[in-house]
Amino acid sequence: FVLFFTDDSHKSEEKDEISKVTIISLVPLLVISVAVIVIFYAYRTHKKRKLNKAWEKNVKPRKHKDCSDVCAIMLDDDRSDISSTCANNINHNTELLPIELDVVVGKGRFAEVYKAKLKQNTSEQYETVAVKIFPYEEYASWKTEKDIFSDVNLKHENILQFLTAEERKTDLGKQYWLITAFHARGNLQEYLTRHIISWEDLWKLGGSLARGIAHLHSDHTPCGRPKTPIVHRDLKSSNILVKNDLTCCLCDFGLSLRLDPSLSVDDLANSGQVGTARYMAPEVLESRMNLENVESFKQTDVYSMALVLWEMTSRCNGVGEVKEYEPPFGSKVREHPCVESMKDNVLRDRGRPEIPSSWLNHQGIQMVCETLIECWDHDPEARLTAQCVAERFSELKHHDKLSGRSCSEEKIPEDGSVTTAK
């Protein structure tokens, strides 16, 4: 027999050599593959950037043009008592304007409002404007409102048109002026006191109010530009103006708050319990706001809006018998109730303004009632948003079930009695 002996160590060396050769052969292939992939993606990225630049060049200018068109519509002369041309010129005027004060048309906690004439050049022509005059002591309120109005993104057809702000020295001392559009119909409370409204009027007034608040609360403009949300914090019928076309515009931003992302919880906590007690939401009366969530501030505005919608509805001839105007909660509280009095009514008794059964006989008004009930819910998070209310009013346009003429221009007789359309 012949025996053959193999050397295992020699075989192992051969295998290692083969592995090394294989690896050395594959490395260039892998490097080439990676290089091809990198080059491919670099090409794709470069091509995409070129397409984006071309898109920006061709599309974005059109977008800005559309935005300007929207803003031009918002400042259209048909929707305001002062021309857009005048407003655009005034906003850049650094000198004191040639204004002649006429009569006092309103008084508030912080200022008086005058009807005034804004003279045009040297001619006898003039524009009618409103001038809100703050005394020296109310500088902080003037500055707050001026800063709110100065935000170009605030412009909206349902927010009072701002012209300019001025500091003036008079015989009575230093004064601070805000010059705005003038609306001859006055504030909503005065208008509802003097007039009975139709369903169409209610739809226009309520829908425009909701749209104004929705824009105030929004974090973007109708054009899509970023915008800092603002809460009014003193919504009530006397802080809402009625325009010639029977739509609303918001005014009086002296207590308003910009919900800037940089605000801390402490900043929000220090903003205080503000507003008018009659219109304060339960959580404001109780000083139990959720400061961790800025949406909670918007929810207080929605509660106040619900009370204003109730005021409108109470003066609509679609509800049957129309009683004399009463503010929310009417005779249940005194004329100027304090916070403690409203706590008893709203918190302890869970009271809300009465909704008579006759209001539910009209399909559109029934839907308004359902909406305002959801808006004044005791739980802030259960309330609708202003945008949702605006959308609901848009859907209500086709629910006109009234018969008879509109009483929107019918004056209340001198004896205070009220008549309804037959």
Automatic annotation (TrEMBL):
The keyword Metal-binding applies. ATP binds at residue 132. The chain crosses the membrane at residues 21-43. Signal peptide: none annotated. It is found in: Membrane. Keywords: ATP-binding, Kinase, Magnesium, Manganese, Membrane, Metal-binding, Nucleotide-binding, Receptor, Serine/threonine-protein kinase, Signal, Transferase, Transmembrane, Transmembrane helix. It catalyses: L-threonyl-[receptor-protein] + ATP = O-phospho-L-threonyl-[receptor-protein] + ADP + H(+). InterPro entries: Kinase-like_dom_sf, Prot_kinase_dom, Protein_kinase_ATP_BS, Ser-Thr/Tyr_kinase_cat_dom, Ser/Thr_kinase_AS, TGFB_receptor. Its EC number is 2.7.11.30. PROSITE patterns: PROTEIN_KINASE_ATP, PROTEIN_KINASE_DOM, PROTEIN_KINASE_ST. The keyword Magnesium applies. GO terms for cellular component: plasma membrane; receptor complex. It is a single-pass type I membrane protein. Its main location: membrane. GO terms for biological process: anatomical structure morphogenesis; cellular response to growth factor stimulus; heart development; tissue development. Its cofactor is Mg(2+); Mn(2+). Residues 99-402 form the Protein kinase domain. One of its GO terms (molecular function) is ATP binding. Belongs to the protein kinase superfamily. TKL Ser/Thr protein kinase family. TGFB receptor subfamily. This is Serine/threonine-protein kinase receptor. The gene is Tgfbr2_0.
